[in-house]
Amino acid sequence: MMRSIFFILLFIAICVPCQDLFAQSASKPRYILAIHGGAGTILKKNMTVEMEKEYTNTLKLALSKGYEALKAGKSSVEAIAQTITILEDSPLFNAGKGAVFTNDGKNELDASIMDGANLKAGAVAGVTTIKNPIKAAIAVMQHSEHVMMVGAGAAQFAKSQHLEIVDPSYFWTKARWDALQKAKARDKERAELDHNANHTAIPEVYKDEKFGTVGCVALDRQGNLAAGTSTGGMTNKKFGRVGDAPIIGAGTYANNQSVAVSCTGWGEFFIRSVAAYQVSARMLYAKQSVEEAARGVIDEIGKMGGDGGLIALDKDGKLIMPFNTEGMYRGSVAEDGTISVEIYK
User: Residue 339, CB half-sphere, CA atoms under 13 Å: how many?
Assistant: First the structure.
């Protein structure tokens, strides 16, 4: 009798926790791809129903393209290329077609990619004629011995790789041009005030000028992680300024042992905190979960005075997308094909 009771209790001890584990697994889907389209002052009161629908539809299209690639057995790098290309071809986001203007009235684009399987990476910065900078970043990674190429040299390399080259006018959009004029008018007014006050102030950066970067993280069937990021930079930027997007470890990082990360926000703070790599380091060395690590990095950036967000997908398919702004265009697709898109908190 006692022996029977023992085995019954042993059965309960083993099976009940297993049931709880299965229940938890069922409630938390395994994600395979996620995107962001920039974080910032995204207020619902400033968004029309039509605009929100347009943003949502484009994000869903990008997610579906990435999912189709992964479902077909393509690599995480290939899935990211297809996903980010959709966002770069849309005028809605500050990347590719929708890139913002520099103070000189130019569009200077940056992008990067990292393969978590082998820690290889590629990036381009300050390019003005490459239609899809993410493809150029991938070409640098796969077909050169370098990690980053900039300006005219990067364009020359892209051309040698038979990537599409366009006239700079391709990137012109009225909304971005108007935003530049508004920023320059404000700077002129402020400069006059500083002159009258007999001092020179450091140019002020406004929240609506430093967001809009797009990014993607993916986990393929082989268990390989990858991360990619693309941006048009900061409205009214001067002196060849480059943000975190093309810098491996700052705006982009992927490692099969931990996580894939793509960042968006005030680039200077993400560079100074080595934000993307720090998520991985917290996981590997401090043994933090992907949620603890990602939220910790965004909290640290906030304490430094910066703002923005990131998307982080770990090797087990767990996803976190923290941000400290009014909103962040973001979306995800689970292993079963379920697509989710969000904008606000």
Answer: 15
Residue 21 has a pLDDT of 34
List C-alpha distances in Å: 198 to 188, 190, 195, 306, 331: 15, 12, 5, 29, 49
What is the Cα 161 distance to its own chain's centre?
25
Cα 264 to chain centroid distance, Å, stands at 6
Using 70 as the pLDDT threshold, list the residues of the chain that sit under it. 1-27, 41, 194-211
Instruction: Return the SS3 of 121.
Output: strand
Neighbouring-strand partners of residue 252:
248, 262
Identify whether 58 is a catalytic site residue. no
Fold exhibited by the domain 32-117+203-344: Glutamine Phosphoribosylpyrophosphate, subunit 1, domain 1 (3.60.20)
Which amino acid is present at 235?
A: T
pLDDT of residue 305: 96
Identify the pLDDT of residue 143: 98
Q: What's residue 210's pLDDT?
A: 52
Helix (H) or strand (E) holding 231: strand 225-231
pLDDT of residue 199: 52
Neighbours of 152 (CB within 10 A): 12
Q: Which of 58, 83, 213, 229 is catalytic?
A: 213
| Vertex 320 angle, CA 37 and 147, to 5° | 60
Helices within the chain (DSSP H only): 2-27, 49-71, 76-88, 133-143, 151-160, 174-196, 267-272, 275-285, 290-304
pLDDT at 46: 77
Question: What is the H or E stretch that residue 262 is in?
Answer: strand 259-265
Task: State residue 81's pLDDT score.
Answer: 98
Look up residue 153 and give its two tokens: 């040299």
